[in-house]
Predict the structure.
Amino acid sequence: MAKFYIDKSVLEQLYLVDNKSIREISRICKTSPIVIRTRMRKYNITVREKKTPIINKDILENLYTVKRMSVKEIGTLCEIHVYHVQKLMASYGIESRIEGRKWRSKVLSIINKEVLEDLYINKELSTHEIGKIINISPGTVHWAILQYNIQPRERVSALRLRASKA
């Protein structure tokens, strides 16, 4: 495999002048962020400090408690990772609506076995599609499938099903 090359002046232009992130530059250059960071080190280009995403406590509280948006929805709206939303909530003392493992019983109360079987087996929806309908993660849908002793699809079957829908 050929080594990736980017000229120092191009990298400085993108990073320092155009203020692009390492990830954005890696997408432009069709390479990994690690390669871009390595080239920056090689060219002695100082990496900017990571900015801590800030959402005002009142805004975050309004979105989460009043508008009842999920942490994922808030992250998407504010263009920050879910992890940062959760950290900000903790620092502001905003309590999660679902504490610890209580979410499990809540998920099973939202979707019963018959509905899950209908969506997953009869309608052949993926865990992603079911998750979008119910507003839970695909991983949580998979967990519920296992809890209800519904036979999960084999990887090959899931891939064939996805290909047939495309």
User: Anything to note?
Assistant: The chain has three domains: 8-42, 57-92, 102-165. The chain has a mean pLDDT of 85. Residues 57-92 form one domain.
